């Protein structure tokens, strides 16, 4: 009852206050804070003046809208295009060539030819590393332009894209460039006079399907290791965010990547994505035309992709899927720091992170204090035009996601969780949502079980370590976990007991090129980044020959 | 019938020698004693430059700077990828200055200018890039325990490293040692060979330009028994690596043991066999054998200095080797037509000639060559002995000169 009332009051306040918001002012990239009414609004709901301001014009042009096949930018075979939208307004940014099955076939054929006949796999690995390093250098040179495209298409804060993400992707490409000439196989001892070599060979063509939440980082996580290992690639971008990959692919060509080595298809999942997942060239009669696939996206779509791969040519699939990662605040935690980190763990990137810390378990001893801080922090979160300086949260990616998140918020309210802040749409244009915090969340509520992928934090209470371990593991997911404690024994217990692919202790979302990332259970299969990322793009071949009269073995060696 | 010793008339131009002082803590300084020594151009026997002569005090100073840089400086504390970035910059600088660097090795060591410029120095940059890419990939292991414990290994930089490098491949050996040391986050004192100090000092200058912090890479030019010995026996050097003759390697290892038991890496001499069977492509084998014996005027640890040829092809092999030796040009190493420059110095020159005399007096058959050539400098004709027996000195000792020993086997 109280929760219901609270929600009604807050929504009334929101509407009444936004009608006081200042009249339209001319857009400027780094304008200061808005005037009094908007400030009051901000204090309650973490906003800057929303509806009144015009969206800032992004400082970049869209020059590449076609598919990249065999080193050329081309229209789709059907001539179709689809719009990509600015999530700040829902308006069209550009019309993009819409790739479908025919285009996928052409791209795979080009990649196949580039592998079988082209220079790329035959180059000495050092030369491949030189090309990849040059590619990284070019991206670095165009850092700001690329970040602007990313923000425009995705809605993430420009500062995040420019200061963190693009440099991270440059770093990752350089990391994999450094691996290219260090992919050593093994020699093995066998039971008898045999010379055994274990070779690591590229697959050939790798199909890759990437999501919209971190378009370019996901591009780098896939393309980096695949190319370093000598493969060629057909990459399908998400339909929500096709722009940045096309820009960056042009730089790859400039860096000296031969035609056909990297092909980019923009398009939709059920058409282009499915075509790639089920690709199997029956005409030529051999089943390894597309021998490998990697997919990052939702668990539901991941299941479809795996099914299609199995039904066609049994191509091995790397999957990076969803999560419902626990963030565990222990009783000895510094509550101020824990609340800040927990906030970041959930709200970062508009809550659109596969590894978002979306179940915040707080020990009962520090629960009340934590809640106060979590609420205050959410209320302070700055939502607005991602091109504006100081904005922490931009719009959600599109209408579908927006509706889905609002639906989960409603279910949270209906289920009896306490709404601490937010709960409503933010502004009246685009897909902004107020930073929302629920407390008194129970494990069986939908908001505690399903991946929401939005700015909705769920805070749950726990009593002891064994209980929280059981509850944290009680999920189909297993992508990541955060642990906040200064007790080394607690940390050691939790890190081994939690069934997740990455355990962050006193930190969260700490990524490095060298750290492997991936999920347990239905959060995925395989690992990306680090040395493990390479294994996704290498096949193991054993070569065995007999040794005549070897020095160390006799014929009758047991 | 000797070799035709070609010399371009007037000889070559000596490049400007910009760096002749010790490089300690980011600065070029005189030796504490003020002493200098000569470095000679082996094509003429004339002095190229006077170079600072480091001794124990200079080594002590350099080690102290390297120690400070390791214990308190940023280099070991940077992330591997940050070190890698700086190393990449150095690799680019090396490529940019390849010509100048090649001229230094050529004029200092008698090496072929075109080989050094187009092969050796680019490979030095590649080696640096290889290790730059490895700097952020230094993995330890987490270990499976058989009790309720966690254990893992960390690979940490060893500390201050001493490098003693030889004169036959001054640039290559410099980077074989320096590259992984930099990548691992160690600091170092390099003592180049006294015969070829010039390129190392230039590399020190480029290292500073690339952003390698002061004290991380120090270069002390000087002699083995003084500077080299001081480095090997220094109580505050954590590790020493030495490339050179087996005999000196022994001394280094002894000094390391007697001082602080520092671990030692040794790359020493060889007397490598090349074994050629009846079913070999004889022409290809003759070319490879010639290369293996005479490349870099035979001053190479992996020289194929014992060539075993199966009896079925022996006569053909001998005949063809004699012919091929005739087209192996000896002369000014700056001349791109030349295949072999002078031996590195007078001492090596005399040693090789004395082994040739041994071969003659032991009864081996001199097929071709066998004497010095040219009016100046330390040139020796490419020399082939046949009917070599295993107990002959020329079959047992490392000659380190352009002397091929052919032996027949069944």
TrEMBL record, chain A:
Asked if the Swiss-Prot or TrEMBL record annotates the protein with the keyword NAD, the reply is yes
All copies of the Aldehyde dehydrogenase domain together span 73-543
Per the record, the domain of life is: Eukaryota
Q: Name one GO molecular function term.
A: aldehyde dehydrogenase (NAD+) activity
Q: Which CDD domains match?
A: ALDH_F2BC
**Keyword entries, A-Z:** NAD, Oxidoreductase
Recorded GO cellular component terms are: mitochondrion
Active-site annotation: 320
Q: One Pfam match, by short name? A: Aldedh
What biological-process GO terms show up in the record? carboxylic acid metabolic process
Name the PANTHER family on file. Answer: ALDEHYDE DEHYDROGENASE-RELATED
UniProt-recorded name of the protein = Aldehyde dehydrogenase domain-containing protein
Q: Which organism is it from?
A: Colocasia esculenta
Automatic annotation (TrEMBL), chain B:
Q: Name one GO molecular function term.
A: aldehyde dehydrogenase [NAD(P)+] activity
Q: The organism sits in which domain of life?
A: Eukaryota
Where, by residue number, is the active site? 267
Report the InterPro entries cross-referenced here. Ald_DH/histidinol_DH (IPR016161), Ald_DH_C (IPR016163), Ald_DH_CS_CYS (IPR016160), Ald_DH_CS_GLU (IPR029510), Ald_DH_N (IPR016162), Aldehyde_DH_dom (IPR015590)
Residues annotated as domain Aldehyde dehydrogenase:
29-410
| Quaternary structure note | Homotetramer.
**What's in the keyword line of the UniProt record?**
NAD, Oxidoreductase
The protein in question is named: Aldehyde dehydrogenase domain-containing protein
């Amino acid at each position: 009852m109280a929760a219901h009332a609270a929600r009604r009051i807050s929504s009334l306040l929101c509407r009444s206050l936004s009608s006081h918001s200042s009249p339209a002012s001319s857009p400027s990239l780094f304008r200061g804070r808005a005037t009094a009414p908007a400030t009051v609004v901000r204090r309650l709901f973490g906003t800057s003046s929303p509806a009144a301001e015009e969206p800032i014009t992004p400082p970049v042009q869209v020059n590449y809208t076609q598919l990249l096949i065999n080193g050329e930018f081309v229209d789709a075979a059907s001539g179709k295009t689809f719009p990509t939208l600015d999530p700040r307004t829902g308006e069209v940014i550009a019309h993009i060539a819409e790739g479908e099955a025919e285009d996928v076939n052409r791209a795979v054929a080009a990649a196949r030819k580039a592998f079988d006949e082209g220079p790329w796999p035959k180059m000495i690995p050092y030369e491949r590393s030189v090309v990849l390093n040059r590619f990284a250098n070019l991206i670095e040179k165009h850092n700001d332009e690329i970040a602007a495209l990313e923000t425009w298409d995705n809605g993430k804060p420009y500062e995040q894209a420019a200061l963190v993400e693009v440099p991270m992707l440059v770093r990752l490409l350089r990391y994999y460039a450094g691996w290219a000439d260090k992919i050593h196989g093994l020699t093995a001892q066998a039971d008898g006079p045999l010379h055994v070599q274990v070779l690591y060979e590229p697959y050939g063509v790798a199909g890759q399907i990437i999501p919209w939440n971190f378009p370019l980082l996901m591009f780098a996580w896939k393309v980096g290791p695949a190319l370093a290992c000598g493969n060629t690639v057909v990459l399908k971008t998400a339909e929500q965010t096709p722009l940045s990959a096309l820009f960056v692919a042009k730089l790859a060509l400039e860096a000296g990547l031969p035609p056909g080595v990297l092909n980019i298809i923009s398009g939709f999942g059920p058409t282009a994505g499915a075509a790639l997942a089920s690709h199997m060239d029956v005409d030529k009669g051999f089943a390894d035309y597309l021998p490998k696939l990697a997919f990052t996206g939702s668990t539901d779509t991941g299941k479809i992709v795996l099914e299609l791969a199995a039904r066609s040519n049994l191509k091995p699939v790397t999957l990076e899927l969803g999560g419902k990662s626990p963030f565990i605040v222990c009783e000895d935690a510094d509550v101020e720091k824990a609340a800040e980190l927990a906030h970041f763990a959930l709200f970062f990137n508009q809550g659109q992170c596969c590894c978002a810390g979306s179940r915040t378990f707080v020990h009962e001893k520090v629960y009340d204090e934590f809640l106060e801080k979590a609420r205050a922090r959410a209320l302070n979160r700055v939502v607005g035009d991602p091109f504006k300086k100081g904005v922490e949260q931009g719009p959600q990616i599109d209408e579908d996601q927006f509706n889905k998140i609002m639906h989960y918020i409603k279910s949270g309210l209906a289920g009896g969780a306490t709404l601490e802040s937010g709960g409503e749409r933010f502004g009246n244009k685009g897909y902004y949502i107020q930073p929302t915090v629920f407390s008194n969340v129970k494990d069986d509520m939908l908001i505690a079980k399903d991946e929401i992928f939005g700015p909705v934090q769920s805070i749950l209470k726990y009593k002891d370590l064994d209980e929280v371990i059981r509850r944290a593991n009680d999920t189909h997911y297993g992508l990541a976990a955060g642990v906040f404690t200064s007790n080394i024994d607690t940390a050691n217990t939790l890190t081994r007991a939690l069934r997740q692919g990455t355990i962050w202790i006193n930190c969260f979302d700490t990524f490095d090129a060298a750290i492997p990332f991936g999920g347990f259970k239905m959060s995925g299969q395989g690992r990306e980044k680090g040395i493990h990322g390479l294994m996704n793009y290498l096949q193991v071949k054993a070569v065995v020959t007999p040794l005549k009269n070897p020095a160390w073995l006799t014929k009758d060696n047991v | 019938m000797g070799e035709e010793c070609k010399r371009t008339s007037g000889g070559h131009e000596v490049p400007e020698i910009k760096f002749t002082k010790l490089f300690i803590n980011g600065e070029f300084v005189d030796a504490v004693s003020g002493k200098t020594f000569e470095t000679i151009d082996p094509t003429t026997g004339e002095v190229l430059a006077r170079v600072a002569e480091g001794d124990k005090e200079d080594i002590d100073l350099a080690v102290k700077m390297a120690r400070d840089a390791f214990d308190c400086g940023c280099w070991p504390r940077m992330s591997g990828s940050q070190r890698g970035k700086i190393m990449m910059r150095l690799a680019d600088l090396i490529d940019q200055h390849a010509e100048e660097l090649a001229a230094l090795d050529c004029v200092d060591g008698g090496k072929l200018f075109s080989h050094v410029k187009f092969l050796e120095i680019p490979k030095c940059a590649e080696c640096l890039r290889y290790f730059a890419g490895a700097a952020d990939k230094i993995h330890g292991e987490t270990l499976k325990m058989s009790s309720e414990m966690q254990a893992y290994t960390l690979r940490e930089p060893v500390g201050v490293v001493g490098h003693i490098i030889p004169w036959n491949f001054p640039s290559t050996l410099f980077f074989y040692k320096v590259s992984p040391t930099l990548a691992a986050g160690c600091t170092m004192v390099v003592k180049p060979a006294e015969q070829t100090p010039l390129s190392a000092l230039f590399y020190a200058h480029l290292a500073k330009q690339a952003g390698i912090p002061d004290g991380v890479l120090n270069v002390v030019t000087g002699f083995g028994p003084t500077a080299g010995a001081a480095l090997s026996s220094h109580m505050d050097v954590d590790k020493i690596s030495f490339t050179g003759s087996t005999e000196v390697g022994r001394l280094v290892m002894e000094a390391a043991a007697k001082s602080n038991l520092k671990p030692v890496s040794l790359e020493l001499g060889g007397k490598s066999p090349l074994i050629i069977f009846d079913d070999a492509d004889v022409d290809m084998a003759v070319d490879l054998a010639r290369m293996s014996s005479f490349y870099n005027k035979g001053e190479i640890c992996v020289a194929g200095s014992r060539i075993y040829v199966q009896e079925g092809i022996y006569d053909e092999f001998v005949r063809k080797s004699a012919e091929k030796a005739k087209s192996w040009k000896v002369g000014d190493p700056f001349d791109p037509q030349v295949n072999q420059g002078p031996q590195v110095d007078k001492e090596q020159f005399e040693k090789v000639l004395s082994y040739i005399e041994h071969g003659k007096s032991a009864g081996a058959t001199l097929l071709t060559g066998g004497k010095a050539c040219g009016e100046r400098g330390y040139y020796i004709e490419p020399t082939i002995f046949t009917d070599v027996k295993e107990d002959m000195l020329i079959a047992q000792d490392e000659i380190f000169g352009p002397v091929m020993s052919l032996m027949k086997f069944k």
